[in-house]
Design brief:
The chain is α+β, with helices and mostly antiparallel strands and 428 residues long. Helix content is 36%, strand content 14%. It has 13 helices and twelve strands. The protein has a five-stranded antiparallel β-sheet, with helices on both faces. The chain starts with a helix and ends in a 10-residue tail after the last strand.
Length: 428
C-alpha cells in the first residue's frame, strides 16, 4: 500500500454519495441522558457493574446484561480477596495483568488506565525513556492519550452491535490488587487503614474498608487454546486447510478486517490477533477454527494518520486480503451498515461509554465519530462493489462530519470530506 496508490484512487470514488444519518444531538438529547442508569438502580442482586473513577469511588453504573461477564468479575474479586493476585504481563509497553480465579486459572486481562503506555503509573520504564529522550516522536498524534481502556471496551461494543463476534467480551471496571502499580502515598494510606481496622475492629472496622483504591481499566475475558495468528498463518501456508475449514477461516478473517476498519485500529499486527485451530474437528468447521481480536487499545482516532507514520493494517499483506469479500459477509453486514438508525445507535452508545472518562472532550468525540462514519461508508462501498480487503484499505480516506453552519436538516445533517494529507511513511 503506498501513498501514491491512495492518491491515484481518489477520483474513482469522488462520486460516492453518503446516505445521511438522522440529525441527532447526542450531547443534549434528554432521552439519551435518561437512558443512563442512575445510582439508585444499583442493588446487590441485579446484574450491573460499577464504573469507577481513579479515586475508586462510584461514578456512573455501567449496566450489562451479560451474566457470564458479571460472574467472571465477581470470581476475580473473590480470588483477589483470598490472595490469588493478578500477574503482570511482561510483554508489551504498559502495565497489564492476567487475572486469575480461585483455581489459579487465568480468566481475564486487566489494563488499568493510569498504567497505559503514557500513563503516569506505567511500571515499564521504556515508555518513560521514550518520552524523556524522544518527545518529538512521543505517542500517536491521531489518538487521544490515555484512553486505551475505553478503546478496548469500545471495540467490544462495536463488535457486539454489528454481530462480528471476534472480540472477547470487554468492559470498563474497577479492580484493586497489591500487584498493581500504586503511588507511595496510596500504599501508605492502605497500610495505615489496614492497621487501624485491625487495631480497632469493633469501631473503625465497621466503617472503613481496608485496602488499596480500585483502579479503573478495561477487563477482557480470557480466551483459551489460541495462538498468535503469525504462528498459524505460517502453518496454513505449509499445510493448507481443508476447503470447508478454509472457507470458515476466510469468513472470520473478513470479520476481523471489518472490525479493524470500522474502528480504524492503528495497531493491528499479526501478533495481536489470535487463531484457535483443532485439526481433529475439521469435519465441523465452526468448532474447528475461530479467531479472536485482542489488543484494541489503539483505535478510534479523531483524525486519520497524516504525519510520519500510516499505522497500516498488517493483515493487508496476507494472501487472504486479496480475496474479494464473500457473499456471506456482504449479506450479513451490508443491511446493518446501511441502517442509518443502527449506525447512529452505535455512535450514541460509544458516546455514553467514552464520556465517563475524566478527560472526555465533546469536540474530540465528534471528530472520532466523523472518522468512524467515513470508515463505515467506505466499507459499505467496498462490500457493494465486491472488493477485497486489500482494495478496501486502498480507498481514499474520508470523514463524515456533522454540519456546524446552522443549516443542517435530516437531509443534510452531515458533510463528506476527503483526506488531503498523507503520512510520510506508508508502510509503518
Amino acid at each position: 500500500m503506498s501513498v501514491a496508490g491512495l492518491r491515484n484512487g481518489h477520483h474513482s470514488f469522488c462520486n460516492i454519495q453518503y446516505q445521511v444519518l438522522p440529525s441527532i444531538d447526542i450531547t443534549e438529547d434528554p432521552d439519551l441522558a435518561a437512558s443512563s442508569p442512575q445510582p439508585s438502580d444499583l442493588s446487590p442482586h441485579n446484574e450491573q457493574l460499577r464504573l469507577l473513577t481513579d479515586e475508586g469511588e462510584a461514578n456512573v453504573p455501567l449496566q450489562t446484561d451479560d451474566p457470564e461477564f458479571n460472574e467472571t468479575l465477581l470470581e476475580a474479586e473473590a480470588a483477589i480477596d483470598e490472595g490469588f493476585l493478578p500477574d503482570r504481563i511482561y510483554q508489551g509497553s504498559s502495565g497489564s495483568y492476567f487475572v486469575r480465579d480461585r483455581e489459579r486459572s487465568i480468566i481475564g486481562v486487566f489494563k488499568p488506565k493510569n498504567e497505559e503506555p503514557y500513563g503516569h503509573l506505567n511500571p515499564k520504564w521504556t515508555k518513560w525513556l521514550h518520552k524523556m529522550c524522544c518527545p518529538c516522536c512521543f505517542g500517536r498524534s491521531c489518538l487521544i492519550p490515555n484512553q486505551g481502556y475505553m478503546s478496548e471496551a469500545g471495540a467490544s461494543l462495536v463488535d457486539d452491535k454489528f454481530g462480528l463476534n471476534v472480540v472477547p467480551k470487554t468492559k470498563v471496571v474497577g479492580l484493586a490488587s497489591a500487584t498493581f502499580n500504586y503511588t507511595a502515598i496510596d500504599k501508605a494510606k492502605a497500610k495505615s487503614v489496614k492497621f487501624a481496622t485491625e487495631r480497632f475492629p469493633d469501631t473503625l472496622g465497621k466503617n472503613m474498608k481496608a485496602g488499596l483504591p480500585p483502579k479503573i481499566g478495561s477487563f477482557q475475558m480470557f480466551v483459551t487454546g489460541y495462538k498468535d495468528a503469525d504462528f498459524w498463518v505460517r502453518r496454513f501456508q505449509e499445510d493448507p486447510l481443508p476447503p470447508a475449514v478454509q472457507k470458515r477461516f476466510q469468513l472470520l478473517f473478513e470479520r476481523l478486517v471489518c472490525l479493524d476498519y470500522i474502528i480504524r485500529n492503528t495497531d493491528r499486527g499479526n501478533d495481536n490477533w489470535l487463531i484457535r485451530f483443532d485439526k481433529e474437528k475439521s469435519e465441523n468447521p465452526e468448532e474447528c477454527i475461530s479467531v479472536a481480536a485482542i489488543d484494541n487499545g489503539l483505535a478510534f482516532p479523531f483524525k486519520h494518520p497524516d504525519e510520519w507514520r500510516a499505522y497500516p493494517y498488517y493483515w493487508a499483506w496476507l494472501p487472504y486480503a486479496s480475496v474479494p469479500f464473500s457473499e456471506e459477509t456482504r449479506d450479513y453486514l451490508l443491511p446493518k451498515l446501511r441502517d442509518r438508525d443502527m449506525v447512529q445507535e452505535v455512535v450514541d452508545e460509544l458516546h455514553i461509554l467514552f464520556k465517563h472518562d475524566k478527560g472526555f472532550d465533546k469536540n474530540l468525540f465528534e471528530r472520532q465519530a466523523s472518522v468512524l462514519r467515513g470508515q463505515i461508508l467506505n466499507l459499505c462501498q467496498a462490500l457493494e462493489d465486491g472488493r477485497s480487503p486489500l482494495q478496501l484499505v486502498q480507498m481514499p480516506l474520508l470523514r463524515i462530519e456533522r454540519r456546524s453552519d446552522g443549516q443542517s436538516s435530516k437531509k443534510s445533517a452531515f458533510i463528506q470530506r476527503f483526506q488531503d494529507k498523507y503520512p510520510f511513511f506508508s508502510s509503518c
